[in-house]
């Protein structure tokens, strides 16, 4: 018997390399997942082009058009409901998920962070690790909760920091690690029935 297909929304804010890594992996592995929607908070970013190339519908929301985050998230939640979304993958989405979305998708949102949490949370994880002079950093996939990169850790992968690294060298290794780890974690969650 064929498993039920799970409807996924990916949230992103920029380039979309994790979006592409995820969609490519899902196709290659023939996973029972359908990326039904890309939610983006910027109108002119490359991830929208990537979604168009993959025939993934997009929903662009400008938070400035709403009186507060709750109002914007109410609109997002309705769009997710309209698309029967089962699970949300944050892939370079540079906003904190608020209580409105968390209440509707508790335990159904994951994020990837470019550092070994709990070290170097927040928006500049790679740069913060680089400037701290650590010899190892990495990538973390975690459940999303009401804090900033504070949800329960699902998986981590270490990435070495070499003495002669420029920041761009480390960024490249981190992103390459993300592109392998994130899709595989999604597959594992699916196999465990957590999606």
From TrEMBL:
SUPFAM superfamilies: Formyltransferase. One of its GO terms (cellular component) is cytosol. InterPro entries: Formyl_transf_N, Formyl_transf_N_sf, GART. Pathway: Purine metabolism; IMP biosynthesis via de novo pathway; N(2)-formyl-N(1)-(5-phospho-D-ribosyl)glycinamide from N(1)-(5-phospho-D-ribosyl)glycinamide (10-formyl THF route): step 1/1. One of its GO terms (molecular function) is phosphoribosylglycinamide formyltransferase activity. Keywords: Purine biosynthesis, Transferase. (6R)-10-formyltetrahydrofolate binds at residues 69, 94-97, 111. The keyword Transferase applies. It holds the Pfam family Formyl_trans_N. Its EC number is 2.1.2.2. Residues 6-186 form the Formyl transferase N-terminal domain. It comes from Lentilactobacillus parabuchneri. GO terms for biological process: 'de novo' IMP biosynthetic process. Catalyzes the transfer of a formyl group from 10-formyltetrahydrofolate to 5-phospho-ribosyl-glycinamide (GAR), producing 5-phospho-ribosyl-N-formylglycinamide (FGAR) and tetrahydrofolate. N(1)-(5-phospho-beta-D-ribosyl)glycinamide binds at residues 16-18. It catalyses: N(1)-(5-phospho-beta-D-ribosyl)glycinamide + (6R)-10-formyltetrahydrofolate = N(2)-formyl-N(1)-(5-phospho-beta-D-ribosyl)glycinamide + (6S)-5,6,7,8-tetrahydrofolate + H(+). This is Phosphoribosylglycinamide formyltransferase. Belongs to the GART family.
